[in-house]
Amino acid sequence: MNDHQTGCPMFTYPGNIHVHSSYSDGSGDFDQIAADAASVGLSFVIITDHETLAGLSEESILNGVVVLVGSEINRLHSHYLALDLDYLIESNENNPQVVIDRVREAGGLGFISHPFEKGHPYIEKGKAYPWKHWPVFCFNGLEIWNYTSHWRGRDPSLFKTLYRFFFNRKAAMDAPPREILQLWDCYNISGHRVFAIGSSDAHATVYKLFGLLKVKVFTYRYIFKTINTYIVLDEELSADFDTARKQILSALREGCCYISFDSLSPGRNFAYYASLDRSNVLMGGETIFHPGLTLHVRAPHKRAVIRMIRNGQLVAQKTSPSFEYKPSGPGVYRVEVYYKPLIGNPRPWIYSNPIYLIHAET
Ligand SMILES: [Zn+2]
Ligand SMILES: [Zn+2]
Protein backbone atom coordinates (compact mmCIF):
# COMPACT_ATOMS: atom_id res chain seq x y z
CA MET A 1 0.00 0.00 0.00
CA ASN A 2 1.20 3.51 -0.81
CA ASP A 3 0.38 6.28 1.61
CA HIS A 4 -0.56 9.05 -0.76
CA GLN A 5 -0.37 11.78 1.87
CA THR A 6 3.36 11.41 2.30
CA GLY A 7 4.44 9.20 -0.56
CA CYS A 8 5.65 6.71 2.07
CA PRO A 9 5.38 3.17 0.69
CA MET A 10 4.43 0.65 3.34
CA PHE A 11 3.63 -3.01 3.07
CA THR A 12 2.31 -5.04 5.98
CA TYR A 13 2.61 -8.82 6.36
CA PRO A 14 0.98 -10.96 9.05
CA GLY A 15 2.87 -13.73 10.78
CA ASN A 16 2.90 -15.83 13.89
CA ILE A 17 6.07 -15.81 15.92
CA HIS A 18 5.58 -18.45 18.60
CA VAL A 19 4.61 -21.85 17.21
CA HIS A 20 5.39 -25.40 18.41
CA SER A 21 5.82 -28.31 16.02
CA SER A 22 6.33 -32.05 16.48
CA TYR A 23 10.00 -31.31 17.18
CA SER A 24 8.74 -30.53 20.70
CA ASP A 25 5.22 -30.65 22.11
CA GLY A 26 3.26 -29.46 19.07
CA SER A 27 1.33 -31.92 16.91
CA GLY A 28 2.12 -30.73 13.37
CA ASP A 29 5.10 -30.96 11.04
CA PHE A 30 6.39 -27.98 9.07
CA ASP A 31 4.35 -28.82 5.96
CA GLN A 32 1.11 -28.92 7.90
CA ILE A 33 1.88 -25.76 9.84
CA ALA A 34 2.78 -23.88 6.65
CA ALA A 35 -0.32 -25.17 4.86
CA ASP A 36 -2.56 -24.01 7.72
CA ALA A 37 -0.77 -20.64 7.87
CA ALA A 38 -1.22 -20.23 4.10
CA SER A 39 -4.92 -21.12 4.33
CA VAL A 40 -5.59 -18.12 6.59
CA GLY A 41 -3.32 -15.71 4.74
CA LEU A 42 -0.24 -15.57 6.97
CA SER A 43 2.99 -14.58 5.21
CA PHE A 44 5.38 -16.09 7.75
CA VAL A 45 5.57 -18.33 10.81
CA ILE A 46 8.42 -18.69 13.27
CA ILE A 47 8.60 -22.13 14.85
CA THR A 48 10.05 -21.96 18.36
CA ASP A 49 10.21 -25.48 19.76
CA HIS A 50 11.33 -26.00 23.36
CA GLU A 51 15.10 -26.11 23.81
CA THR A 52 15.88 -27.23 20.26
CA LEU A 53 16.77 -25.86 16.83
CA ALA A 54 16.12 -29.25 15.24
CA GLY A 55 14.05 -27.81 12.40
CA LEU A 56 16.68 -25.29 11.30
CA SER A 57 17.58 -27.17 8.11
CA GLU A 58 13.89 -27.08 7.12
CA GLU A 59 13.71 -23.28 7.04
CA SER A 60 12.30 -22.32 3.63
CA ILE A 61 9.28 -20.97 1.83
CA LEU A 62 6.61 -23.66 2.15
CA ASN A 63 3.19 -23.28 0.56
CA GLY A 64 4.06 -19.62 -0.04
CA VAL A 65 4.73 -19.05 3.68
CA VAL A 66 8.19 -18.10 4.96
CA VAL A 67 8.96 -20.64 7.69
CA LEU A 68 11.71 -19.61 10.12
CA VAL A 69 13.05 -21.48 13.12
CA GLY A 70 13.98 -20.19 16.57
CA SER A 71 13.83 -21.80 19.97
CA GLU A 72 11.95 -21.32 23.24
CA ILE A 73 14.75 -21.52 25.80
CA ASN A 74 14.23 -22.42 29.50
CA ARG A 75 11.71 -25.04 30.45
CA LEU A 76 10.66 -24.72 34.09
CA HIS A 77 9.88 -20.99 33.87
CA SER A 78 11.29 -17.77 32.33
CA HIS A 79 10.63 -18.86 28.74
CA TYR A 80 12.70 -16.91 26.22
CA LEU A 81 12.05 -16.87 22.47
CA ALA A 82 15.36 -16.73 20.64
CA LEU A 83 15.42 -16.12 16.90
CA ASP A 84 18.12 -15.72 14.25
CA LEU A 85 20.49 -18.23 15.85
CA ASP A 86 22.89 -20.73 14.22
CA TYR A 87 23.35 -22.75 17.39
CA LEU A 88 21.31 -23.51 20.48
CA ILE A 89 21.81 -21.54 23.68
CA GLU A 90 21.61 -23.58 26.87
CA SER A 91 18.74 -23.02 29.30
CA ASN A 92 19.47 -21.37 32.64
CA GLU A 93 16.31 -20.82 34.68
CA ASN A 94 18.31 -19.84 37.77
CA ASN A 95 19.83 -16.93 35.92
CA PRO A 96 17.83 -16.05 32.79
CA GLN A 97 19.98 -12.94 32.31
CA VAL A 98 22.73 -15.33 31.20
CA VAL A 99 20.40 -16.73 28.52
CA ILE A 100 19.54 -13.22 27.35
CA ASP A 101 23.22 -12.29 27.18
CA ARG A 102 24.23 -15.49 25.34
CA VAL A 103 21.51 -14.97 22.73
CA ARG A 104 22.67 -11.40 22.20
CA GLU A 105 26.35 -12.42 21.98
CA ALA A 106 25.40 -15.01 19.35
CA GLY A 107 23.80 -12.25 17.26
CA GLY A 108 20.29 -13.53 18.01
CA LEU A 109 17.06 -11.74 18.70
CA GLY A 110 15.29 -12.43 22.01
CA PHE A 111 11.76 -11.95 23.34
CA ILE A 112 10.50 -12.56 26.87
CA SER A 113 7.55 -14.90 26.59
CA HIS A 114 4.40 -14.81 28.77
CA PRO A 115 6.18 -12.94 31.63
CA PHE A 116 3.34 -13.14 34.16
CA GLU A 117 1.62 -16.38 33.11
CA LYS A 118 -0.94 -17.49 35.68
CA GLY A 119 -2.06 -20.91 34.50
CA HIS A 120 -5.42 -22.50 35.12
CA PRO A 121 -6.32 -24.86 37.98
CA TYR A 122 -7.92 -27.35 35.56
CA ILE A 123 -5.22 -27.28 32.85
CA GLU A 124 -1.90 -29.12 33.31
CA LYS A 125 -2.66 -29.33 37.03
CA GLY A 126 -2.39 -25.57 37.37
CA LYS A 127 1.16 -25.32 36.01
CA ALA A 128 2.33 -21.89 34.83
CA TYR A 129 5.59 -20.67 33.37
CA PRO A 130 6.09 -17.02 34.38
CA TRP A 131 9.36 -15.12 34.70
CA LYS A 132 10.62 -15.23 38.27
CA HIS A 133 13.76 -13.11 38.26
CA TRP A 134 13.39 -9.37 37.73
CA PRO A 135 14.76 -7.10 36.53
CA VAL A 136 16.50 -8.41 33.43
CA PHE A 137 18.02 -6.24 30.72
CA CYS A 138 19.22 -6.22 27.13
CA PHE A 139 16.45 -8.35 25.65
CA ASN A 140 14.92 -7.14 22.38
CA GLY A 141 11.28 -7.49 23.17
CA LEU A 142 8.36 -8.68 25.15
CA GLU A 143 5.43 -10.88 24.17
CA ILE A 144 2.56 -8.68 25.36
CA TRP A 145 -0.31 -10.90 24.15
CA ASN A 146 -0.02 -14.69 23.92
CA TYR A 147 -3.26 -16.41 22.91
CA THR A 148 -2.67 -19.76 24.64
CA SER A 149 -1.23 -18.27 27.79
CA HIS A 150 -4.02 -15.69 27.98
CA TRP A 151 -6.63 -18.46 27.79
CA ARG A 152 -5.05 -20.27 30.69
CA GLY A 153 -4.91 -17.25 32.93
CA ARG A 154 -8.15 -15.58 31.91
CA ASP A 155 -10.34 -16.94 34.69
CA PRO A 156 -9.92 -19.79 37.20
CA SER A 157 -13.60 -20.72 36.89
CA LEU A 158 -14.15 -23.99 35.00
CA PHE A 159 -17.68 -22.99 34.04
CA LYS A 160 -16.61 -19.66 32.53
CA THR A 161 -13.68 -21.28 30.73
CA LEU A 162 -15.93 -23.91 29.16
CA TYR A 163 -18.54 -21.29 28.24
CA ARG A 164 -15.93 -19.15 26.51
CA PHE A 165 -14.34 -22.14 24.79
CA PHE A 166 -17.57 -23.48 23.32
CA PHE A 167 -19.71 -20.37 22.88
CA ASN A 168 -17.74 -17.14 22.99
CA ARG A 169 -14.03 -17.48 22.25
CA LYS A 170 -13.63 -13.82 21.30
CA ALA A 171 -14.67 -12.81 24.81
CA ALA A 172 -11.73 -14.68 26.31
CA MET A 173 -9.22 -12.33 24.66
CA ASP A 174 -10.30 -9.20 26.48
CA ALA A 175 -7.00 -7.27 26.35
CA PRO A 176 -3.28 -7.81 26.86
CA PRO A 177 -2.65 -8.16 30.62
CA ARG A 178 -2.37 -4.71 32.19
CA GLU A 179 0.77 -5.66 34.13
CA ILE A 180 2.56 -6.62 30.89
CA LEU A 181 1.66 -3.31 29.25
CA GLN A 182 2.93 -1.49 32.35
CA LEU A 183 6.17 -3.47 32.28
CA TRP A 184 6.62 -2.71 28.57
CA ASP A 185 5.99 1.02 29.09
CA CYS A 186 8.23 1.09 32.15
CA TYR A 187 11.22 -0.28 30.23
CA ASN A 188 10.72 2.13 27.35
CA ILE A 189 10.14 5.20 29.52
CA SER A 190 13.31 4.45 31.48
CA GLY A 191 15.39 4.33 28.31
CA HIS A 192 15.50 0.58 27.61
CA ARG A 193 14.14 0.09 24.11
CA VAL A 194 11.84 -2.92 24.28
CA PHE A 195 9.61 -3.90 21.36
CA ALA A 196 6.36 -5.82 21.61
CA ILE A 197 5.14 -8.89 19.78
CA GLY A 198 1.94 -10.94 20.01
CA SER A 199 1.64 -14.63 19.30
CA SER A 200 -0.44 -17.78 19.37
CA ASP A 201 1.91 -20.17 21.23
CA ALA A 202 0.21 -22.75 18.99
CA HIS A 203 0.58 -26.42 19.88
CA ALA A 204 -2.53 -27.95 18.26
CA THR A 205 -2.43 -30.43 21.12
CA VAL A 206 -4.42 -33.64 20.69
CA TYR A 207 -6.28 -34.78 23.80
CA LYS A 208 -7.95 -38.13 24.30
CA LEU A 209 -11.42 -37.89 25.80
CA PHE A 210 -12.66 -40.93 27.74
CA GLY A 211 -9.61 -42.81 26.41
CA LEU A 212 -11.10 -42.90 22.93
CA LEU A 213 -12.18 -39.73 21.23
CA LYS A 214 -9.26 -37.63 19.96
CA VAL A 215 -9.85 -33.87 20.14
CA LYS A 216 -7.45 -31.23 18.87
CA VAL A 217 -7.72 -28.09 21.00
CA PHE A 218 -7.04 -24.90 19.04
CA THR A 219 -5.92 -26.23 15.65
CA TYR A 220 -3.13 -24.36 13.90
CA ARG A 221 -5.63 -23.08 11.37
CA TYR A 222 -7.90 -21.69 14.09
CA ILE A 223 -5.23 -20.14 16.23
CA PHE A 224 -3.45 -18.49 13.27
CA LYS A 225 -6.56 -16.32 12.90
CA THR A 226 -6.23 -14.91 16.42
CA ILE A 227 -3.25 -12.90 17.69
CA ASN A 228 -0.66 -12.15 15.03
CA THR A 229 2.31 -9.86 14.59
CA TYR A 230 2.48 -7.83 11.40
CA ILE A 231 5.79 -6.61 10.02
CA VAL A 232 5.97 -3.31 8.14
CA LEU A 233 8.28 -3.12 5.12
CA ASP A 234 9.12 -0.32 2.73
CA GLU A 235 9.14 -2.80 -0.15
CA GLU A 236 7.34 -6.05 -0.90
CA LEU A 237 8.31 -9.23 0.93
CA SER A 238 10.70 -11.07 -1.36
CA ALA A 239 9.93 -14.43 -2.95
CA ASP A 240 13.58 -15.34 -2.37
CA PHE A 241 13.94 -17.14 0.96
CA ASP A 242 17.22 -15.58 2.15
CA THR A 243 16.03 -12.06 1.36
CA ALA A 244 12.61 -12.63 2.96
CA ARG A 245 14.27 -14.06 6.09
CA LYS A 246 16.39 -10.94 6.40
CA GLN A 247 13.39 -8.65 5.84
CA ILE A 248 11.30 -10.37 8.53
CA LEU A 249 14.04 -10.55 11.15
CA SER A 250 15.16 -6.94 10.50
CA ALA A 251 11.61 -5.65 10.93
CA LEU A 252 11.28 -7.54 14.24
CA ARG A 253 14.72 -6.39 15.38
CA GLU A 254 13.87 -2.76 14.61
CA GLY A 255 10.41 -2.88 16.18
CA CYS A 256 8.83 -2.08 12.83
CA CYS A 257 5.86 -4.29 13.63
CA TYR A 258 2.52 -4.33 15.44
CA ILE A 259 0.12 -6.77 17.05
CA SER A 260 -3.43 -7.45 15.94
CA PHE A 261 -6.22 -9.56 17.42
CA ASP A 262 -7.33 -10.66 13.97
CA SER A 263 -10.45 -12.46 15.20
CA LEU A 264 -12.06 -9.01 15.54
CA SER A 265 -10.95 -7.85 12.09
CA PRO A 266 -7.71 -8.43 10.15
CA GLY A 267 -5.00 -5.91 11.02
CA ARG A 268 -3.47 -5.70 7.56
CA ASN A 269 -2.61 -2.15 6.37
CA PHE A 270 -2.57 -0.51 9.77
CA ALA A 271 -0.13 2.40 9.63
CA TYR A 272 1.57 4.52 12.27
CA TYR A 273 4.42 6.88 11.52
CA ALA A 274 5.79 10.32 12.34
CA SER A 275 6.31 12.91 9.64
CA LEU A 276 8.08 16.22 9.40
CA ASP A 277 8.18 17.90 6.01
CA ARG A 278 8.47 14.86 3.75
CA SER A 279 10.56 12.60 5.94
CA ASN A 280 8.92 9.77 7.86
CA VAL A 281 9.82 7.69 10.89
CA LEU A 282 8.18 4.31 11.29
CA MET A 283 7.37 2.27 14.40
CA GLY A 284 10.44 1.38 16.44
CA GLY A 285 12.25 4.46 15.12
CA GLU A 286 13.34 7.64 16.84
CA THR A 287 13.59 11.26 15.83
CA ILE A 288 14.25 14.57 17.55
CA PHE A 289 11.08 16.21 18.76
CA HIS A 290 10.04 19.23 16.69
CA PRO A 291 6.81 21.25 17.11
CA GLY A 292 6.04 20.69 13.41
CA LEU A 293 5.97 16.90 13.78
CA THR A 294 2.77 14.95 13.14
CA LEU A 295 1.97 11.40 14.22
CA HIS A 296 -0.21 9.66 11.63
CA VAL A 297 -2.40 6.68 12.39
CA ARG A 298 -4.52 4.76 9.91
CA ALA A 299 -6.68 1.86 11.09
CA PRO A 300 -7.66 -0.90 8.68
CA HIS A 301 -11.38 -0.72 9.49
CA LYS A 302 -13.79 2.17 9.82
CA ARG A 303 -15.11 0.93 13.17
CA ALA A 304 -11.96 2.09 14.96
CA VAL A 305 -11.22 4.03 18.11
CA ILE A 306 -7.62 5.26 18.06
CA ARG A 307 -5.85 5.93 21.34
CA MET A 308 -2.53 7.79 21.54
CA ILE A 309 -0.40 6.72 24.49
CA ARG A 310 2.53 8.90 25.63
CA ASN A 311 4.89 7.47 28.27
CA GLY A 312 2.25 4.93 29.25
CA GLN A 313 -0.56 7.50 29.64
CA LEU A 314 -3.56 8.03 27.35
CA VAL A 315 -3.21 11.55 25.88
CA ALA A 316 -5.76 11.55 23.06
CA GLN A 317 -8.52 9.42 21.61
CA LYS A 318 -10.50 9.61 18.39
CA THR A 319 -13.35 7.50 17.06
CA SER A 320 -12.25 7.36 13.46
CA PRO A 321 -10.18 5.15 11.13
CA SER A 322 -7.52 7.87 10.87
CA PHE A 323 -5.93 10.27 13.29
CA GLU A 324 -3.30 12.97 12.90
CA TYR A 325 -1.87 13.94 16.24
CA LYS A 326 0.47 16.82 17.08
CA PRO A 327 2.72 15.67 19.92
CA SER A 328 3.34 18.28 22.60
CA GLY A 329 6.86 17.22 23.54
CA PRO A 330 9.40 14.41 23.60
CA GLY A 331 8.27 11.01 24.80
CA VAL A 332 7.55 7.39 23.95
CA TYR A 333 4.45 7.42 21.75
CA ARG A 334 2.54 4.26 20.95
CA VAL A 335 -0.92 3.58 19.59
CA GLU A 336 -3.75 1.29 20.64
CA VAL A 337 -6.69 0.77 18.32
CA TYR A 338 -9.98 -0.56 19.64
CA TYR A 339 -12.55 -2.20 17.38
CA LYS A 340 -16.08 -0.91 17.85
CA PRO A 341 -18.59 -3.74 17.33
CA LEU A 342 -22.19 -3.03 16.33
CA ILE A 343 -23.27 -3.90 19.84
CA GLY A 344 -21.19 -3.53 22.98
CA ASN A 345 -18.06 -1.72 24.03
CA PRO A 346 -14.99 -1.16 21.84
CA ARG A 347 -12.53 -4.07 22.06
CA PRO A 348 -8.73 -3.92 22.23
CA TRP A 349 -7.52 -4.83 18.75
CA ILE A 350 -4.19 -3.38 17.52
CA TYR A 351 -1.07 -2.44 19.50
CA SER A 352 1.70 -0.54 17.73
CA ASN A 353 5.32 -0.40 18.70
CA PRO A 354 6.45 3.03 19.90
CA ILE A 355 7.96 5.94 18.05
CA TYR A 356 10.57 7.65 20.23
CA LEU A 357 10.60 11.45 20.10
CA ILE A 358 13.78 12.52 21.82
CA HIS A 359 15.20 15.80 23.15
CA ALA A 360 17.44 17.66 20.75
CA GLU A 361 20.38 17.54 23.17
CA THR A 362 20.30 13.74 23.76
ZN1 LIG B 1 6.33 -20.89 26.91
ZN1 LIG C 1 5.63 -21.83 23.75
Helix content: 10-25%
The CATH homologous superfamily of the largest domain corresponds to: Metal-dependent hydrolases
Bound small-molecule species:
zinc ion
Helix count equals: 8
Name of the top-level CATH class of the largest domain: Alpha Beta
Strand content: 25-35%
The CATH topology label of the largest domain is TIM Barrel
Overall number of domains = 2
Shape descriptor? globular
Q: Which spans have pLDDT < 50 for at least 5 consecutive residues?
A: 1-5
The overall average pLDDT, rounded, is 92
Q: Compute the CA-based radius of gyration.
A: 20 Å
Give the termini distance in whole angstroms.
Answer: 34 Å
What is the CATH architecture term of the largest domain? Alpha-Beta Barrel
| Number of E strands | 24
Q: What kind of sheet is the major sheet?
A: 16 strands, mixed
